[in-house]
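thought: user wants a sequence for this fold. calling inverse folding tool.
action: design(structure=
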């Protein structure tokens, strides 16, 4: 099983650029770019909480599991 962060898809659905989102969150652009990539190997829980709050989504909308 693979765990995927759907941040890239959610931002695209809302027409928000990764840069714009990073600036609005007061986070490094590189952090948001990394979370939008397919190579995320770790993330802080607090970061996920902040993203969920900012986008008004539940954690199960942001993180999904995929079968390999």
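)
observation: tool returned 68 residues.
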């Amino acid at each position: 099983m693979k765990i995927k962060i759907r941040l890239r898809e959610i931002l695209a659905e809302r027409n928000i650029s990764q840069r714009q989102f990073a600036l609005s969150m007061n986070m490094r652009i590189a952090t948001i770019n990394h979370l939008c990539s397919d190579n995320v190997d770790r993330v802080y829980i607090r970061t996920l909480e902040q993203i969920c709050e900012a986008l008004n989504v539940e954690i199960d909308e942001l993180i999904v599991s995929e079968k390999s």
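thought: summarizing for user.
answer: Here is the designed sequence. The longest strand covers residues 2-5.
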